[in-house]
Amino acid sequence: MAMDLNAKAAYIRGLMTGMEFDPNSKNGKIIAAMMDLLEAMAATVTEHDQALDQAFDELDAIDEDMDDLTDALFGIDDEDEEDESDDDDAEYEVTCPNCGAVTAVDEDTLLNQELVCPNCGAAFDIELAPEEEENGNIPISDE
Ligand SMILES: [Zn+2]
């Protein structure tokens, strides 16, 4: 795109050269000065645009190097960190009603399966928050 600026300025310069343009007339002085300015601006913008492209390329390269460095230094990515914290949250301690042994289970086991005590082999269910159920369904007595 910026390449076009230099080409367009050169096209206008060519028009001026081809016609009988008098750079010493009143209007000619202004137009000649504007032409000089146009060419200088086109050249400067093109230069800056190329420098900017180069800077972005170098930034991308540095960004990739940073990723490699981070992996090499810490050896983990974000997904691994999340998985580890999930495992920590999923552990619950359950006390066996038969022998009193404490067992660690994850949330799925606690909610969906009948628990078997690894100490005495007794199978038992865990009642979750029984007080809430009673408060939600108060029995009406007909005395
Ligand atoms: Zn037990």
How far is the N terminus from the C terminus?
92 Å
- Average pLDDT reading: 80
Instruction: Report the structural category.
Output: mainly alpha
Morphology call: rod-shaped
Computed over alpha carbons, the radius of gyration is 40 Å
Low-confidence stretches: 130-134
How many E strands? 4
**What characterizes the major β-sheet?**
2 strands, antiparallel
Which bin fits the share of residues in helices?
55-70%
Bound molecules: zinc ion
How many H/I helices? 5
How do the SSEs run, as a string of H and E?
HHHEEHEEH
Count of individual domains: 2
Beta-sheet strand percentage?
Answer: 5-15%
Biggest sheet: strand arrangement = 1-2
Describe the structure.
The protein has 143 residues and is mainly alpha-helical. 64% of the residues lie in helices and 8% in strands. The protein is built from five helices and four strands; from the N terminus they run αααββαββα. The relative contact order is 0.06. About 3% of the residues have low confidence. The site of zinc ion (ZN) has 8 residues, from loops.
